[in-house]
Amino acid sequence: MLLLGLLLFCILDWSYSQTDLCDKRLFSSYTHQSKRSVNYDETTTLSDRFMREGWYGSQDLIIPSVQPASGHCGAKFPIFLQSAPRVKRVIVDVKACIRDCITQMDIKALKCSDRLTIYKLVRPLNSGAAYCLDGIQTDLLDFNTNVTVNTNLRPVPGSDDEQEFIFDCSFPNPNQDSHVYKATWFVDDVMVYESNYTDYNDVNKIRSLTDTRLRDSNITTLGFQLHCDISAAVDTSGGRSSFPSTSRKKFIGMTVQNPNINLKEGEKGRISFWSTVPIGCAETGGCLLTVTADIPKEGEDLCEPTPTANEITSTVTENYGESVIQKKIFLRTDSSYFSHPIWQNYFLEPVTINIFKNTSLIEGRSCGIHQDPYLEDFSTTFW
Fold it and tell me: Which first-to-last residue range defines the signal peptide (predicted)?
C-alpha cells in the first residue's frame, strides 16, 4: 500500500512539471532563428557544439523531421529529427540526426500545443552541427531587417532621484502600416522578456527592456551579454508572423582594459576599465560610483605583495627560490548606489597580477668567504 502511494505521487509530480514547462514558459528561445531555417541557404558557420543544454522552443517553430537540403540551416551539418512527437503534453524521447542519421543523439520533446513544441537539446559532438528549424505555418511573413540594441536612461516612474536603463530593440522603419512587431530579449542567451505585438512607433515602449523588467527575471546587477529579436506579424495576435531578425550581442557593464598585469618588486601598476553603457545620476550635484578592490588574504605571510584599491604596490618577498607571485584582485562597485541601483554590488572581471623578483641590485656581483678568515662583500671590500 505504501509503494502504491509513492508511485501515485511520482506520476502527479511528473505531470505537474510538464505543465510548468509549457504554461510557465520554463524554456529558452532559439538563437539565430532566421539562419536556422530550412529555407536559409547562405553560407554561415552556426555551431551548437558549445550551446547551453536545456529546454528550447518558439511558437510556430519546430525541428523538422525531414532532412534539410545540403548547405541549409546555416550549418555544415544541419540537425533534424528521425520522427516528430505526436501526443500532446507528454515528454517523449526522440532521435536527433546528422547526415542521414549516421550520427544520432537522444533528446526529449514535449508538444505543448498545435503551435508550440519544445525540446530538451544536448550539445552535438560535431563542431559544425546546428539544430535546424522549420515553420508550422506554410505562409510565413516575408520580413528581414537589421536590428541593434540602443541604450538610454530614463527616470524611474514615481521616483525623483532614481534612474533606470531603457534598452530599445531598434530597426529601420519598414513603412508597412499593416504590420505589427514584437521584441524578445535575451541575457546570456536566456530569454528574459517577450513583448506583445505593437506598431512600429511603440510610443508606450512595450518592446523596450528596462531595469524593472530585468528584475522580474531575477537579474539585479550588470555584467552580461544582451541581444534581442524582432518579429513581424499581420495582427497583434501573432497571426501570419515572420522569422525573427537578431541583433548582435552587446556587453552591459564595465570592461577591464588590462586584466593581466606584470610588475617587478617595488613597482606600481594601475587598473584601467571603462563602462559600455551610461551610469545613471539623478542628483543635481553629481554622483560618485566607487569601484574598490577585494584582495583575498592567503595565510599570514606579510612578505607577499599587498595591492590596494585601484593602485597596486608590490613589496619585496623573502621566500627563498621564489621568482614570481600571483595575486587575484576582484573589483566591485558599492553595495548601495541609489541613483541607479542596478550598478550596485557589481563584480567586474578579476585582475591577475604577476609580481617578479627584482634582482637588478645584485646582478653581476658576487660575495664570498675565505679561510683567513675574512669576508668579501658585494663592493669587493675585505673584512
Answer: 1-17
CATH architecture classification, 254-356: Sandwich (2.60)
CB 96 within 8 A of CB 75: no
Question: What sign does the CA torsion over 256, 257, 260, 264 have?
Answer: negative
**pLDDT digit string, tens, across residues 211-228:** 999 999 999 999 999 999
- CATH 2.60.40 in the chain, residues? 148-252, 254-356
Closest CA to 308 of 256, 338, 282, 270: 270
Query: Cell match 541583433: residue?
Result: 247
pTM score of the predicted model: 0.66
User: Cell digits for 129?
Assistant: 552541427
SS3 377: coil
Q: Give bridge partners of residue 354 from the DSSP assignment.
A: 262, 326
Residue with cell 532559439: 30
Q: Does domain 148-252 have CATH number 1.10.540?
A: no
d(CA 222, CA 214): 10
Helix (H, G, I), strand (E, B) or coil at 17: helix
